[in-house]
Amino acid sequence: MKIAVLGGDGFVGWPTTLHLSNQGHEVHILDNLSRRWIDTELGVQSLTPMDSIQERCRIWREETGRSIDFHLIDLAKEFERLKSWLAAERPDAVIHFAEQRAAPYSMKTDRHKVYTVDNNVNATHNLLAALVETGIDAHLVHLGTMGVYGYSSVGAAIPEGYLDVEITNLEGEKKGLEILYPTRPGSVYHMTKSLDQILFQFYAQNDGLRITDLHQGIVWGTHTDQTRRHEQLINRFDYDGDYGTVLNRFLIQAAIGYPLTVHGTGGQTRAFIHLQDCVRCIELALSDAPEAGDRVRIFNQMTETHRVRDLAELVAKMTGAEIAYLPNPRKEAPENDLIVKNDQFLALGLDPITLAEGLLGEVVDVAKKYAHRIDRKRVPAVSAWTKDIASRVESDPEGKRLKSVS
Ligand code: USQ
Predict the structure, then answer these.
(1) Which residues contact 123 (CB under 8 A, 6 or more apart)?
(2) Does the Cβ of 19 fall within 6 Å of ligand 1?
(3) Which of 30, 11, 12 is nearest to 68 (CA)?
(4) Which ligand 1 atom minimizes the distance to the CA of 332?
(5) What pLDDT is recorded for position 151?
(6) Secondary structure (DSSP) of 32-73
């Protein structure tokens, strides 16, 4: 297949690109390199030293003989260039990762909220409009998020995208209806992914676009089989308070002797997936494309759920790290249950990698190897969801103690 990976320079985009190229697909990366610019804006860098995208592609070609083409295109701003590229290349599949993906970054200031909405919603809509206009029958696979649903405990499993409901009509008869499972996003970033769902629903129904939306959980791990092949193919690895995600952050914190930063009581339960399983799931989703006219196919791309404090305790037991319970900079339920259905991926042959598989130690080893690249001042999460929360977090003695640790 000819596959366009939009956002192929990112944390999941890059290993996905390598995985698909390794399987013999012709892969093109379209990316505006915004993640690298955001690193510069925030004054942080990936824990792992990353080469330029062009250099990464050159090393991959030397290693494997396979080429990956890079195209510098901003999906959200360069609609005509995107359309021309699609019309000329006519990919069989398009994988869409090209969105600002950090909840804390999206809540930093009003400017970050506006940027996240502009970038994410325009990127998705430009892509959909360009696919319709060029008449390309490509399968669109989008990286969505489990977080569109929010985290209220209703004691029922979150289904794969759709919910059967019953409503009473004006004659008093009960009628069945299938609806998108209701969203309740907990950040501006998660809100943009909820809006994406509606855009997809419309274009699948109106234009027969073939769309798969993958509602992914929190990714952990850093290597895949392909990124391990050469030092310069290494994946990016975020540890900072904006882009680092919870389990990877705990593992890095443990590696550098920094107390594990649990927000609140740590009673938040979240869905997780290892990076190697992410790339495998994308491969599986590609192999099972919907037909034109089908509803959007929605998968829950996760393999297990865990409570944040249980993860902290697990990492503390494994490494001897100390745990710090901090005031939560986010507005989120302090405790929640989470049950998620992922039957479709299991039926397609996914054999999940779990936390028990010994890969936690690999992340600690990577963190120790590159510990000298960590700026400890960038470890605390300081983006607060509201002004009130910001002042509460700022005045907390535990947070002050952590600042002195750094
Ligand atoms: N948390 C801590 N301590 C930390 C960092 C986070 O306790 O040092 C807590 C947060 O308060 C939250 C939970 O851990 O309750 C998860 O936070 P996270 O930063 O790991 O994940 P999140 O902000 O939800 O976003 C990440 C990715 C996003 C993806 C999402 C999947 O950045 O792109 O969509 O995970 S999900 O969470 O299932 O929506």
Answers:
(1) 6, 75, 76, 96, 98, 99
(2) no
(3) 30
(4) 15
(5) 84
(6) --HHHHHHHHHT---SS----HHHHHHHHHHHHS--EEEEE-
Summarised one tens digit per residue, pLDDT across range 345-380 is: 999 999 999 998 888 999 999 999 999 999 999 999
The 10 Å Cβ neighbour count of residue 282 is 27
Let me know: does 79 contact 126? Beta carbons within 8 Å.
Answer: yes
The pLDDT of residue 120 is above 90: yes
For 283, the domain range is 2-238+271-305+334-354
Question: Could you tell me the CATH number of the domain that includes residue 344?
Answer: 3.40.50.720
Q: Active-site positions?
A: 145, 189, 193
Residue 157 lies in a domain: yes
270 lines ligand 1 (CB under 6 A): yes
Q: Are 217 and 273 in contact (CB under 8 A)?
A: yes
Question: Does 180 fall in a domain?
Answer: yes
In a domain, 403, yes or no: no
Q: What is the pLDDT of residues 28-68, one digit of tens each?
A: 999 999 999 999 999 999 999 999 999 999 999 999 999 99
Residue 31 domain-assigned (yes or no) = yes
Distance of CA 275 to the CA centre of its chain: 10
CA 90 / ligand 1 centre spacing (Å): 36
The per-residue DSSP string of 104-123 comes to: HHHTSSHHHHHHHHHHHHHH
Question: Which residues share a beta bridge with 271?
Answer: 305
**What does the angle CA 404 – CA 405 – CA 406 come to, to the nearest 5 degrees?**
90
Does the beta carbon of 140 sit less than 6 angstroms from any atom of ligand 1?
A: no
- Per the structure, how many domains does the chain have? 1
For residues 31 and 123, the answer to whether their CB atoms sit within 8 Å is: no
CA distance 213 to 215: 6
